[in-house]
Design brief:
Blueprint (H helix, E strand, L loop, with lengths): L3 E6 L10 E9 L2 E11 L4 E2 L4 E2 L6 H24 L5 H11 L4 H14 L3 H18 L11 H13 L5 H20 L27 H9 L7 H13 L6 H6 L5 E2 L2 E5 L6 E5 L2 H10 L22 H23 L13 H13 L4 H8 L4 H11 L1 H11 L1
Antiparallel strand pairs: 1-2, 2-3, 4-5, 6-7, 7-8
């Protein structure tokens, strides 16, 4: 059905100086939306029937020209939306409302704030980096959303590759933030067509084989004679506790408290996805816990990675401390890896998680659906991709066990 446009004076919003705002009312299918024109006049200067400002107003020509331009702009937006069968009073209103501020960076700032409110710190950090690269590409913080098309995205991808030297996976990570911002623009009717539809770039490279340790290498690390209480001794304990706990992440090891050890079980909430994890303690875990029990405090941290006397209620500060400690532990693990024969290449704390997955499936015959639960993946597809990065043959073996 046809869309109608009418200007109205909202006397219900009259100010103390008697001026009232002029609104554009957009109607389609008996559904109306209103939008302020940002123009204010006294009721005596408004011609209700003709929907124009009377000659009695000092700047009536300028205001009437502005109103006419606003109506024409609405009609152009209507025609654009009609092309993609997305026309509605709400869509036209939203496009008009954001036309002046319908800028990529305005929406990007909103997106970053939402991530901050959700405490999605890792995603926030990556998005901030990606948005910074868009700003470098533009040379300013001004980018109308309707300028972003397939050609623009392809040029930006080349910019990331040539000027920043970014690898395919890094480029893909940068585009994750851009895709999410474009989705917000579509949802808010700021653009009528998705510029990503015909964009075939920014794809991840084929997953490299992940470093993982065999059970023989695990035992070799355990057999090393280390000074109790040394950095190397602690680093090995952290790594082994993760391995024997189903590959729990470093941040979770940092935050584990004695109060989360109950009746022979560990019950804690994961930092990454907030899922509650519960499992029985095994003898390997218990042996490591016993080594730290001498300094046990009811609500204290189990491992000496975080300070019991500091406040970690600020999530950003907590993530910073975890990241700093992770770097230190990785450095100590690399020293440990050189002490075994033959030396272990490419070790890091996260390798404990890879090693658990490898051992669970290849040595213990754990089914892929069981591994998904152990790793607390959100979907079976994530587990399949995880195994694929470990070993193609291992992934095939796991799939055959399920199907």
């Amino acid at each position: 059905m046809a869309v109608t446009y009418h200007f109205i004076l909202r006397t219900d919003k009259q100010r103390a100086d008697s001026r009232a705002p002029i609104y554009l009312r957009i109607t389609q299918n008996r559904k109306s939306r209103q939008l302020s024109t940002s123009e204010w006049i006294k009721p005596k200067h408004w011609h209700k029937d003709k929907e124009v400002v009377r000659r009695s107003h000092a700047t009536y020509k300028a205001i009437n020209t502005l109103l006419n331009n606003k109506r024409n702009k609405a009609k152009r937006i209507q025609a654009d939306l009609d092309t993609y069968n997305k026309c509605s009073a709400k869509a036209i209103q939203q496009r008009l409302k954001k036309e002046q501020t319908g800028d990529f960076f305005d929406l990007a700032d909103t997106y970053l704030e939402e991530l901050k409110q959700d405490q999605s710190h890792y995603t926030h950090k990556n998005a901030k980096v990606a948005i910074g690269k868009v700003e470098a590409f533009e040379g300013s913080r001004s980018l109308p959303l309707n300028y972003i098309d397939t050609d623009y995205l392809e040029r930006f991808e080349r910019f990331l590759s040539n000027d920043y030297g970014n690898a395919p996976n890094t480029i893909n990570k940068n585009f994750t933030a851009i895709r999410n911002i474009i989705k917000k623009a579509l949802k808010n009717h700021l653009i009528a067509v998705n510029p990503l539809i015909n964009f075939e770039g920014a794809k991840r490279a084929k997953a490299k084989e992940k470093t993982k340790l065999s059970i023989k290498q695990i035992h070799a690390l355990e057999a090393l004679e280390l000074d109790k209480g040394s950095n190397l001794w602690h680093a090995r304990n952290y790594f082994m506790f993760s391995f024997y706990s189903g590959g729990i992440r470093f941040g979770d090891v940092c935050c584990l408290k004695w109060s989360e050890i109950k009746d022979g079980q560990i019950v804690y909430r994961m930092n990454k996805n907030k899922k509650v994890l519960r499992f029985d303690l095994n003898e390997h875990q218990q042996e490591i816990l016993d080594a730290y029990a001498v300094n046990r405090k009811p609500d204290g941290f189990i491992f000496n990675l975080l300070n019991n006397h500091k406040d970690y209620s600020d999530a950003a500060y907590l993530r910073k401390r975890i990241s700093s400690n992770n770097a230190k532990v990785n450095k100590w693990l690399k020293r440990l890896a050189k002490m075994v024969n033959p030396p272990i290449e490419g070790i890091s704390f996260h390798v404990a998680r890879h090693s658990y997955a490898q051992h669970a499936v290849s040595e213990k015959g754990l089914r892929i659906v069981e591994l998904r639960q152990a790793l607390r993946h959100s979907s079976i597809e994530t587990t399949e991709q995880y195994l694929k990065g470990l070993d193609d043959e291992l992934a095939n073996k796991a799939m055959k066990k399920v199907f």
